[in-house]
Amino acid sequence: MFGIGSTELIVILIIALLVLGPKRLPELARSLGRGLAEFRRATSDITEEIDNARIMVKEEVRSAARSAEESEGNQETEEKPQARKGSVDNADDEDSDA
User: H helices within the chain, ranges in order?
Assistant: First the structure.
């Protein structure tokens, strides 16, 4: 836990008990616990928001990629009949020249 061994933690708690006294130490520990719980909740909320934003961005990118592929496919199908029509027109022109 934070790179502190059990012996060091006990020494810190004894010093805190001597400095703060037996009445204030539980109040301080309670306040510290509430603060840590609040911090964890806030961190969890922020992480959740970031994950949701990341998921939304991925979905938008996929949607944009799909629509780009669909529009590309539509352009190809529109170009093919025009190319065929042009080749038929050229063939008609060749027949009229003969």
Answer: 6-97
Exposure string of 50-67, with b = 16+ CB inside 10 Å and e = fewer, is: eeeeeeeeeeeeeeeeee
Ordered by start, the domain boundaries in the chain are: 41-71
Contacts of 17 (CB under 8 A, 6+ apart): 25
pLDDT of the chain along its 98 residues, tens only?
A: 467 788 998 898 888 888 888 888 888 889 989 999 999 999 999 999 999 999 999 999 999 999 988 887 777 666 655 545 555 555 555 555 54
- CA 29 to chain CA centroid, Å, is 36
Dist. CA 26–CA 32, nearest whole Å:
10
What is the Cα–Cα distance from 85 to 89, expressed in whole angstroms? Answer: 6
